[in-house]
Amino acid sequence: MEKKIIRLLQYRRHELMNQLQIIQGYMQINKLELAIDKIGKIVEDYEQERRLFNLDIPKFTWWLFTFSLDKNLFPLKYEILNFSQGIEHLDHTILSKSKEMIEQLCNSVNHKQISEGKVKLIEREENMTIQIELLGDFSLLQKRQFNVKTVSYTIENNKITATHSVALHKKV
């Protein structure tokens, strides 16, 4: 476990250093607007991370952070929308459903076609939607929609999306 934590910290440090070097490069060539945009993107990424931590779903968070390290596949980003409180009671459900959806999506394409993935958690009144998008070159796949159990899938030119809703059952 310690080695995995060290690998994760090394990966995150490497990513941050890459971003800082890009900003430094923009500044050296007097592209201040690009540098400011890049800083804004970094701030937004850390805001998303804060939102993820505030959901209090440690198993799911660990899976997101170590996905690329474990599978050595593609980067998996995330976006947290509209949550007003923690959902720790759904940690296992969100993790298992997300893993199932990723597996189904990955089984429908060649892994080399995938450039990145994104997981969105969206709170809508009494429900939460898990949406997973894979981006890449899927131009040879036929555009279509289909359902597998409680998950709906959509295939378009450069994106495959899986969507599933979960009842929040807010704690009293």
UniProtKB/TrEMBL annotation:
A GO MF label: phosphorelay sensor kinase activity
Superkingdom of the source species? Bacteria
Check the record and name the Gene3D superfamilies matching this protein: 1.10.287.130, Sporulation initiation phosphotransferase B (SpoOB), C-terminal domain
Q: InterPro entries, per this entry?
A: Sig_transdc_His_kin_SpoOB, Spo0B_C_sf, SPOB_a
Where in this chain does the record put each SpoOB alpha-helical domain?
3-55
Q: Which is one Pfam family of this protein?
A: SPOB_a
Alphabetical keyword list = Kinase, Phosphoprotein, Transferase
Protein name, UniProt field: SpoOB alpha-helical domain-containing protein
Source organism per UniProt = Cerasibacillus quisquiliarum
Mind giving the lineage of the organism this protein is from? Bacteria, Bacillati, Bacillota, Bacilli, Bacillales
